[in-house]
Write a structure and sequence with these properties.
It is a multi-pass membrane protein. By secondary structure, the chain is mainly α. The chain has 12 helices and no strands.
């Protein structure tokens, strides 16, 4: 895979703008962080991403996208195993190619019809972050030349954050809940906020509290045997239902019911563009 990546970077150097040493650095970052992040994921079922770290390291136009992909996605795929990655990535590529060639103005919320589901929020965040870190660059944001230089202190705060919980759990061993304080989960839980909305966190929290507090206490044997299976079943059910709804309704331009929670912000002006010169139907013109 490294050889194929090297071929891609050197063979398409004008498009990717990532030199061979940048690829090796990205792979080294992925290799270095696979074990510690794997430990966090194994114990918490949460995988902190390396996207911000890789963006901060390279911060250089199009090379930012390639460097972030090889440094962040390589680590993520290593933890999700190779065979599943090959199947999933091939299916994802074929699906993405089909959608991009069959849906007009996909991923462009300014040109799509009102209420269209094809706004690509996750890909939009990935792309916008690459532009911000690549075009503007970390030098103009997080150094003495930028306005966000104080945010670098959060690297130190993140490093020190687990220490108080560890110290208190050792000092008061009889207080069992102190051992359950996990700062990677508490801090990292907000990493999905763009593009996730508040309603998603409410749903996740309600399901998590019900199964990991009530069911865990009342039916511990059932919880130990079926909770992770149920979690996978819920994820798979949403994916399969999405496929069924697309082929039976959306692909035939049949508008489905207005489900509660789809209008998550309940603010009609939230989707209005803020950049000057861009006009969207239903939005005020300043």
């Amino acid at each position: 895979m490294v050889a194929l990546a090297m071929f891609a970077c050197e063979g398409f150097d004008k498009q990717l703008q990532l030199p061979w040493w940048g690829l090796l650095m990205a792979c080294g970052i992925a290799l270095f962080f696979t074990l510690p992040i794997g430990i966090i994921q194994a114990t918490t079922n949460t995988q902190p991403g390396l996207n911000v770290i890789t963006e901060l390291v390279i911060g250089e136009a199009l090379a930012n996208v390639a460097f972030k992909t090889y440094g962040y996605i390589s680590m993520s795929q290593a933890l999700y195993f190779l065979v599943g990655t090959l199947v999933a990535s091939s299916t994802y590529f074929a699906t993405a190619w089909w959608l991009l060639s069959s849906i007009k103005d996909i991923c462009d919320p300014l040109l799509l019809p009102e209420g269209s589901p094809w706004t690509c929020p996750g890909d939009d965040v990935f792309y916008n972050a690459s532009i911000i870190w690549g075009v503007i660059g970390p030098l103009r944001m997080f150094t003495k030349y930028g306005i966000y230089k104080e945010m670098n202190w959060f690297f130190l705060l993140g490093f020190l954050a687990p220490i108080p919980g560890w110290f208190l759990s050792r000092k008061y061993p009889n207080i069992k809940w102190l051992r359950l304080i996990n700062m990677p989960i508490i801090i990292g839980a907000t990493s999905s906020m763009p593009p996730t909305k508040a309603v998603n966190y409410w749903a996740w929290g309600a399901v998590g509290i019900f199964f990991n507090f009530y069911i865990y206490r009342k039916f511990k044997a059932w919880w130990a045997r079926h909770t992770y299976v149920l979690s996978a079943a819920l994820d798979a059910g949403v994916a399969f239902l999405g496929i069924v709804l697309f082929f039976t309704l959306q692909s035939k331009n049949v508008i489905g019911p207005e489900w509660w929670g789809l209008d998550m912000d309940h603010c009609p002006l939230a989707s209005c563009p803020t950049a000057p010169g861009i006009v969207k139907k239903g939005c005020p013109v300043f």
